[in-house]
Amino acid sequence: MDERQAGGVSQPKRVIYAGGGTGGHIYPNLAIAQRVQQIAPESQALFICSKREVDHEILESSPYSYRALHVKPLSSRQDIVIKTINGHASVFIKELS
Predict the structure, then answer these.
(1) β-strands 14-18, 44-50 pairing
(2) CA-to-CA distance for 62 and 88, rounded, in angstroms?
(3) 3-state DSSP call for residue 18?
(4) Which residues contact 92 (CB under 8 A, 6 or more apart)?
C-alpha cells in the first residue's frame, strides 16, 4: 500500500472496518486487518461496531481502535432497507465527526 501526500508529508493509509452485533462480522474483519498490517505496517485501522457487549468484548482484547455506534437491525423490506441505509449513513457521518 502506498502512502498519501498531504502538504508534502506522507500520511499512512487509514482503513475502516464496519460490522458488529455478532462475532460473525467482527472476526473476519480482524483477520483482514491483521493481514493489512502485515503488508502495510504503517496503516491505521479503526473498527466501527455496535454498542452490544459482544462487540466490546471481542474488540477490547484486539490491538485495534474501535468506535461503538448506536445501530438498529435493517428491515427485510427492500424499500425500508434503502431508506434505513441512507439514514444510518448520515448518523454514522455525524457521530464520527
Answers:
(1) parallel
(2) 26
(3) strand
(4) 48, 69
What pTM was estimated for this model as a whole? 0.67
Quick: pLDDT tens for 35-92: 999 999 999 999 999 888 999 999 999 999 999 988 776 656 655 555 555 556 555 5
Residues, the chain, total? 97
Q: Give the C-alpha separation, 62 to 20, whole Å.
A: 14
* Residue 43 contacts residue 16 (beta carbons within 8 Å): no
Half-sphere exposure of 14 (CA within 13 A, CB side): 8
Cell of 52: 452490544
Question: 6-41 pLDDT, tens per residue?
Answer: 555 566 688 999 887 777 889 999 999 999 999 999
Helix residue ranges, H only, 1-97: 23-39, 53-60, 78-96
Q: Which amino acid makes up residue 78?
A: Q
